[in-house]
Design brief:
Residues 3-227 form the DUF2229 domain. It holds the Pfam family DUF2229. One of its GO terms (molecular function) is kinase activity. The chain is of the alpha/beta class and 335 residues long. The chain has two domains: 3-162, Rossmann fold (3-Layer(aba) Sandwich), CATH 3.40.50; 186-326, 3-Layer(aba) Sandwich (Rossmann fold), CATH 3.40.50.11900. Helix content is 48%, strand content 13%. The protein contains 14 helices and ten strands. α6 (123-133) crosses α7 (140-162) and α11 crosses α12 (246-260). The N and C termini lie far apart (61 Å). The model has no long low-confidence stretch (mean pLDDT 87).
Length: 335
């Protein structure tokens, strides 16, 4: 039985149920690296070029952890996942960066996914699926059936997200027959949107368990994954120019949607230091929040970030929101 390694980084919380079920249906054993910890972070920093952003460094650490434990490491080359849009350059080049940065790696399954001019039903996309499956079997019928079942699992995962389940929990729940869809619907004092790239929002080590801390403070947490694609497209189209970064569109569209519909009382933007795309997105969302009187704060993460500083920022933000809502709602959020 082949062992396929899936690093717990970058697009893990976007597609893990799809990837894992696909390889399991083909008869492979799927091994996932553990949650990010100090050793994985340090390994990533040592094995990656200095100019890379923190999530890419962390991903290198996860790949390095898996290299002696699996027959293959699955790192697809995600060029485009939507027509006329692109993924971030660091995602496009991820398999090559890992291949040339870490010594003694097993073969990398770097299937190219490029839907800029096609869609999920095209023959070119099906060819990409077969390309990934051929590492395990040459039987095209088996690969096709495995992908069909994997997609069903992925749809269950997306359904959980649409019901307000945090992806961290949805990954554990998507293949169960019964799930508690009230995970994020318990009594809460206010709602806050945590916005940013998924590899910043859902890596509990990098963001110092931000989501858990908010939930423990009776905060209802909203994330971009909980907003429908139609709403994301509609509200992102309010921009004067087309957003051609897929994740940029998701971040802006989801934030604009919740702000315009008055469904959140505050926004926390999680960004990794040196992210070029975030430098634009942060300004767009902060301006929209300011125009609607919605409190906004930015948390920037890097390998030197200390938890005490993050905790202080979170506590101050929540306290100021509660104080403003209770006593001084006529005071401007932005001074």
């Amino acid at each position: 039985m082949y062992k396929i390694g899936i690093p717990r980084g970058m697009l893990f919380y976007d597609y893990y149920p799809l990837w894992a079920e696909f390889f399991k249906e083909l008869g492979a054993e799927v091994i996932v690296s553990p949650k990010t910890n100090k050793d994985i972070l340090n390994s990533g920093v040592l094995n990656c070029v200095d100019e890379s952003c923190l999530p890419v460094k962390v991903f290198h650490g996860h790949a390095d952890y898996l290299k002696d434990k699996v027959d293959y490491i699955f790192i697809p080359k995600m060029i485009s996942i939507r027509k006329l849009e692109y993924c971030c350059p660091k995602i496009l080049g991820l398999p090559d960066m890992v291949r040339f940065s870490i010594a003694d790696l097993p073969p990398i399954i770097d299937t190219t996914i490029n839907l800029r001019k096609i869609n999920y039903t095209s023959s070119k996309y099906k060819k990409a699926v077969y390309e990934a499956g051929k590492y395990i079997t040459q039987n095209k019928s088996k690969i096709r059936n495995a992908y069909k079942k994997a997609w069903e699992s992925y749809e269950r995962y997306l359904y959980l997200l649409s019901k307000g389940v945090i992806p961290i929990e949805a990954v554990k729940m998507y293949n169960k027959t019964f799930v508690d869809l009230n995970y994020n619907s318990k009594n809460h004092d206010m709602s806050i949107m945590v916005v940013g790239h998924p590899y910043n929002i859902y890596d509990e080590y990098l963001n110092m368990n931000l989501i858990s801390k908010l939930i423990n403070n009776r905060i209802k947490v909203m994330t971009p994954e909980m907003v429908s694609k139609d709403e994301i497209i509609y509200y992102s189209n309010q921009l004067p120019k087309r957003m051609f970064w897929t994740y940029g569109r998701r971040i802006v569209g989801s934030a604009f949607s919740l702000i315009e519909k008055d469904e959140v009382e505050g926004i926390i933007y999680l960004s990794s230091f040196g992210c070029g795309i975030d430098s634009i997105l942060i300004d767009l969302i902060e301006r929209k929040a300011k125009s609607k009187g919605v409190p906004f704060t930015l948390l920037t993460l890097d390998e030197q970030t200390g938890e005490a500083g993050i905790d202080t920022r979170i506590e101050a933000f929540i306290d100021m929101m509660k104080w403003r809502n209770k006593d001084d709602c006529d005071i401007s959020t932005f001074r």
